[in-house]
Design the sequence.
């Protein structure tokens, strides 16, 4: 394919999340989140970095909206910090926190930029963690109550809602590996944490169906899993990892039961009653449809593929992801640049779950950018990554996949969780001292793609 025109109403955007960019996490009466607590615990985040300042977006939001407009973006995906709106996670609304998001949404709409609002991008209010967090069976109801505050305040201007970002990451790095907040190592809790996240999504969708006027979906991290060798053990490991990462959440939402591999993966820790789901009672899950009662769209966060090797000592999967061969391009996160996996993922989603609308809600790469030369940060590797993945998306569109938008991760260099500020995903550089924003060459390449509506 030498050139391709995307559909006229295709959304072109960039994505961010609250804790990663906002800074001032306790301003104006906000309650602390688990990420605030985690980052302030010595040894949890590289270099002792925290989100206290981040990109200063909480004060510079108007400048960032102007930047989105200058780059020609037609959409912007951001998340709301639950604790700004409900400092204790439940109960009284903090009007000043809510007003911050009202102003942001108003400014986006004024500029003709479609807001896509993520309700939960990992920053649970610490007060709820003190009640067990996502391990607590009440957590879906907490989430639905919080979601309704936002629906009520913003649904007239926000047409696209995402409930939860990457429930797998919340569950495994957050509750099993201890790498991300809340930093637990509680393997036995993982199936229930995941289940509560799914019930939280369903509860928010049910609330939205009662009052909302637009579209609501979920964003999942997906990557094809390939065996590292032809050995049968590696092939079986890749299949288990496919269930674990790609199918755990979507099978339940769209097919009505967990993948059979889950019981094998978790062994005694897998609750018997989870297969099939009993709550909600028998919703009309239907494979092959263009709509689903459980989600209006699927948000795809795609970065790379997994190369999988059997490794019985790694719990719970009995497998690990291995590094790609030395000659393939990799990012500074150690992730292989593998655009073909994006096309494959989009086609796989349609094949397995039906023709639901899809958005690429995150796609991007961390590289060590060169210093500016003659005023230009020539992030050539990110430019290649962007181009090749847009091409991969176009290949899926050309095969009839209902892909409706692309959100680059990320608008700004930001707080990359346990890596602190060391990993840079931005189309726009943020000077760590002055917070001055400088668009990189990838930003101008993206602007040209948007202007042309194609590649
Ligand atoms: O920065 C994260 C984001 O918060 C969730 N998806 C993956 C990105 C890169 O690691």
Sequence:
């Amino acid at each position: 394919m030498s050139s391709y025109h995307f559909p006229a109403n295709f959304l072109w955007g960039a994505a961010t999340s609250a804790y990663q960019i906002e800074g001032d996490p306790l301003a104006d009466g906000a309650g602390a989140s688990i990420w605030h607590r985690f980052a302030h615990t010595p040894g949890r985040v590289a270099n002792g970095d925290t989100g206290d300042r981040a990109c200063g977006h909480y004060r510079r939001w108007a400048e960032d909206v102007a930047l989105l407009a200058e780059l020609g973006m037609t959409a912007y995906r951001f998340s709301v910090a639950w604790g700004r709106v409900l400092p204790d996670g439940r109960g009284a609304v903090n009007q000043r926190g809510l007003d911050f998001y009202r102003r942001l949404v108003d400014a986006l709409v004024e500029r003709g930029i479609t807001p896509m609002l993520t309700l939960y991008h990992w920053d649970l209010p610490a007060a709820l963690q003190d009640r067990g967090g996502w391990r607590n069976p009440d957590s879906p109801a907490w989430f639905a109550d919080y979601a309704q505050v936002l629906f009520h305040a913003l649904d007239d201007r926000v047409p696209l809602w995402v409930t939860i970002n990457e429930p797998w990451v919340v569950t495994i790095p957050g509750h099993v590996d201890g790498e991300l907040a809340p930093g637990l190592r509680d393997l036995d809790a993982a199936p229930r944490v995941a289940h509560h996240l799914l019930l939280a999504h369903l509860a928010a969708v049910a609330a939205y169906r009662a009052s909302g006027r637009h579209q609501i979906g979920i964003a999942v991290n997906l990557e094809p899993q390939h065996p590292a060798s032809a050995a049968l053990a590696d092939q079986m490991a890749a299949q288990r990892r496919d269930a674990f990462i790609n199918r755990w959440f979507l099978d339940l939402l769209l097919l009505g039961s967990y993948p059979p591999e889950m019981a094998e993966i978790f062994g005694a820790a897998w609750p018997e009653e989870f297969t099939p789901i009993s709550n909600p009672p028998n919703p009309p899950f239907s494979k092959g449809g263009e709509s689903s009662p459980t989600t209006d769209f699927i948000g795809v966060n795609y970065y790379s593929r997994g190369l999988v090797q059997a490794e019985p000592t790694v719990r719970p999967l009995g497998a690990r992801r291995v590094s790609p061969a030395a000659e393939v391009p990799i990012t500074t996160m150690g992730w292989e640049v593998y655009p073909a996996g994006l096309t494959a993922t989009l086609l796989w989603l349609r094949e397995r779950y039906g023709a639901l609308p899809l958005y690429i809600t995150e796609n991007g790469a961390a590289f060590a950018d060169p210093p500016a030369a003659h005023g230009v940060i020539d992030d050539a590797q990110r430019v290649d990554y962007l181009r090749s993945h847009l091409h991969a998306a176009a290949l899926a569109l050309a095969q009839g996949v209902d892909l409706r938008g692309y959100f680059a991760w990320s608008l700004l260099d930001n707080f990359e969780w346990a890596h602190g500020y060391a990993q840079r995903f931005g189309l726009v550089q943020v000077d760590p001292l002055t917070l001055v924003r400088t668009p990189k060459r990838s930003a101008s390449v993206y602007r040209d793609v948007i202007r042309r509506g194609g590649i």
Summary: The pocket of 5-hydroxymethyl-3,4-dihydroxypiperidine is lined by residues 17, 20, 166, 301, 362, 409, 416, 425 (CB under 6 Å). Residues 232-255 form the longest helix (24 residues). The domain at 11-452 is CATH 3.20.20.80 (TIM Barrel).
